[in-house]
Amino acid sequence: MYRNPILRGFYPDPSVVRVGSDYYMVNSTFQYFPGIAISHSKDLVHWELIGHALTDPDDPDLSDIRDSHGIWAPDISYSDGRYIIMATLRLNGDGKRGTPVLRRQLVVSSERPEGPYTRPAKLEVDSIDPSHFVDKDGQHYLVISPGVRILPLSDDCTRVTGEAVTVWEGTGERCPEGPHLFRRGKYYYAVLAEGGTGYGHGINVARSENLLGPYEPSPYNPILRQTDPEAPIQRTGHGKLVETQNGEWWAVYLLGRPNSGRYTTVGRETGLDPVTWTEDGWFLINDGKGPSTLQRSPDLPEQTWPRWLRDDFDAETLDMHWQFVRRPRPADLSLTERPGFLRIYTGDGVLSEIRAANTLLRREEELCYTAETALEFAPAADGEQAGLVCYYSTATYLRCALCMEGGRRIRLAANRGHGEEVLAETGLLPEGRVWLRVEVDHLRRTFSYSLDGERYLPVGTAENCIYLCDEGVPDDPKRHTGTLVGIYCNNGGRGSRIPADFDYFAYSDGQEDE
């Protein structure tokens, strides 16, 4: 048995492909870098992060991308010995990049699932949620919203070679997106997410004997939707099917776990449920009962992977689990200047600004967890700061930092969507190492510090942190990610450049260390 979600924390918009007995999944990363997380599994339940599809900070350059813009809804496929990943690059739409378009599509490929991948080809198709379909005659198609639209592609999938045709508009629900096409037997099946990505999200399907239609909607629609408002899993949709080597069918899909109400603090995640075929050639996800919490595992050999819970910064390269907020500045980070430490230099800006760099995060995976770090930092001017951060966006975060504010002290500050406010701070502290800790209990986040690594003293507690989620700030136009936790270092816009040395970062949520 297994429990949903199978990928916990900020892993939205899943797409999956099987190659032999191996399964590969990609997920959206939005403004974070590196872009497009790639995971591997042998049993569809346990996954290991193996790489990213976008690893060149210059292509695409995410340095000025707004919150929850950037890399949307990737798709992974396998054709002629190559892995092909497509994704939407959601631009700001302000014309600063020399184009008025809001969106273009990126295509990369590799002979290895973990990469490295080619430089992204750019398809000037102004929409979202691309996927790849190869028809029985070998013709490649870009499948894209709204509804299920197809555009013919060159054999290497880097050029559009014809006009778009909408083969199925959907059932009439709002936001017909996340389209996929696949063929089984005599039918083409068009799979579509509808109802919007929030509560009420769902999956509908239609079929046709001809690629261009007409398509007949399934009498079983929606084939996946959460109808119980009190269930622990909500917001289910945006799914893709995969057939195992044993002939079973399964669906991966997007979901969210509400936290003490309708607040999805850890972000949109990935779920898994079985697919069954009816006698009349339709299919259902989890027998039409909605998403499962506890489910029977696929008939595949179990393969588990160690969880990434601690980084002692002993390697010479940064672990792939770390996510930068937008474009990194390699000159500001070093694992070799002081071996055994991650040295981060204070970058310009503050966390509420898009220009701020040097923020490194990992995904929150549960609604309750503890994270801690130890650092050595000698701020000399007001504004210089380094420490822990629970980060959703430039508009919403909690930071607990060693800083120089009228003297060396630790300050807890929150941005709830309307600018920073100081929640608590310590008195003046002596020079030397400082340990920082955050304990998260649903919507409460408690911060503490230590001067010896053993005795922790309180800094402050932030209650009812509903602003660290998709739904908590209604006037923020786009909130599609989730809360991540990690470390940061900046100079408060003062222009100075001094180092902060982080000895380790540890995360624990009480779940089994598989």
Chart the SSEs and their pairings:
Layout: E1 2-3, E2 15-19, E3 22-27, E4 32-33, E5 35-41, E6 48-54, E7 70-79, E8 82-90, E9 103-110, E10 121-123, E11 131-134, E12 140-144, E13 148-153, E14 165-168, E15 177-184, E16 187-194, E17 202-208, E18 216-217, E19 224-225, E20 234-243, E21 249-256, E22 268-277, E23 283-285, E24 294-295, E25 310-311, E26 323-325, E27 333-334, E28 342-345, E29 359-363, E30 368-377, E31 385-393, E32 396-404, E33 408-416, E34 420-425, E35 434-441, E36 444-450, E37 456-462, E38 484-490, E39 499-508
Antiparallel strand pairs: 1-24, 2-3, 3-5, 4-26, 5-6, 7-8, 8-9, 9-10, 11-12, 12-13, 13-14, 15-16, 16-17, 17-18, 17-19, 20-21, 21-22, 22-23, 25-39, 26-29, 27-28, 28-39, 29-38, 30-35, 30-39, 31-32, 31-38, 32-33, 33-34, 35-36, 36-37
Percent of residues in helices? under 10%
Mean pLDDT: 96
Q: State the CATH class of the largest domain.
A: Mainly Beta
Q: Strand pairing plus helix content: what structural class?
A: mainly beta
Beta percentage is over 45%
Per the CATH scheme, the topology name of the largest domain is Tachylectin-2, Chain A
How would you write the strand order of the largest sheet?
Answer: 4-26-29-38-31-32-33-34
Report the span from N to C terminus.
15 Å
> Count the helices. How many?
0
Estimate the global geometry from the Cα principal axes.
Answer: globular
CATH H-level superfamily of the largest domain? Glycosyl hydrolase domain, family 43
Major sheet size, sense and barrel closure: 8 strands, antiparallel
- Compute the number of structural domains: 2
Count of individual beta strands? 39
Low-confidence stretches: none
Radius of gyration: 23 Å
Supply the CATH architecture of the largest domain: 5 Propeller
